[in-house]
User: What shape does this take?
Amino acid sequence: MIEQPFERLLWGSRLIVLLAVVASLVVAIGMFFVSTVDVVGLLGHMAHYPAVHGAERAALRSTVVAHVVEVVDGYLLAAIMLIFSLGLYELFVSRIEAAEGSEFASRLLLIQSLDDLKDRLAKVVLLILVVKFFEYALQLTFKTPLDLLYLSVGILLVSAALYLTKGKEPKPYDSHSG
Assistant: This one.
């Protein structure tokens, strides 16, 4: 008697995840905006590049490259939030009908379980870490040969991490499963 209404309530409670879906989508949009504003500022730096020479040009170049890395980092974070939002929606609420039959969806919406979502997010987080490593590597000053060795070991470890995350090919997006 109470079992059926309770089960309906329990099943309906999964829709609370819509709060996380909307919040993640808002954060993704915000990060895309922030990164795009950063790009506009970066273009301002680039506009001065032809007018400077010598050491000042080298310093400006380093600044521009560092800003490019920051922009890539921001866009990757925005992509994580977008993937997270889409994944949560598909896992807890419903398939995204607008994506069915889309070739693009087969590359983006390969999330069929929480493990798939976690794996997908982990790969993008790893990309952010690689970008951060690159950013720090650009700022290094080598005082001893050991500093260069440490950089080399870091590159080796990053390469190993990327190699180890290269897994099996995901299954295509199937609108009839789940």
